Amino acid sequence: xxxxxxxxxxxxxxxxxxxxxxxxxxxxxxxxxxxxxxxxxxxxxxxxxxxxxxxxxxxxxxxxxxxxxxxxxxxxxxxxxxxxxxxxxxxxxxxxxxxxxxxxxxxxxxxxxxxxxxxxxxxxxxxxxxxxxxxxxxxxxxxxxxxxxxxxxxxxxxxxxxxxxxxxxxxxxxxxxxxxxxxxx
Length: 185
Prior knowledge:
Number of helices: 9
Low-confidence stretches: none
Order of helices and strands: HHHHHHHHH
Structural class: mainly alpha
Helix content: 55-70%
Mean pLDDT: 94
Distance between the termini: 26 Å
Number of strands: 0
Oligomer: single chain
CATH topology: Hypothetical protein af1432
């Protein structure tokens, strides 16, 4: 993994993803993961965390029915090591893979993947259309409304918070702060 540059990862991302939505989600997760690495004392692994966020849905656009399965093959063929492959694919735990998140980074990726979608959707219905002024209570209200951003699994978000040993409010607060670092993406 140490020999994989961000540019190499970006080229791979763009090879398998063309839709703006998927690319934007990848860029957001990259920055969110870097934020969490720095905040949680893993700054020396920030590049690893960032690339995991960037490539976590590498196969989703082209192979949605094989998400996190096809990805393992693609990453191996492109020189990524097993630690990285495991980390990235663990975010599919319980719905596409049986790779349980164990490392803090894997748990953060698992929890924030869905949560960033919910927070982003909640921000879009605000007058500002921004995460800059969104509050935990606004996100919690949307969290409790299953029909709002229905594709964002509340169960996975809660499981991720539980895996991390965090209260849901803390996870939401940290993720909002992380997303504020990427405003405008």
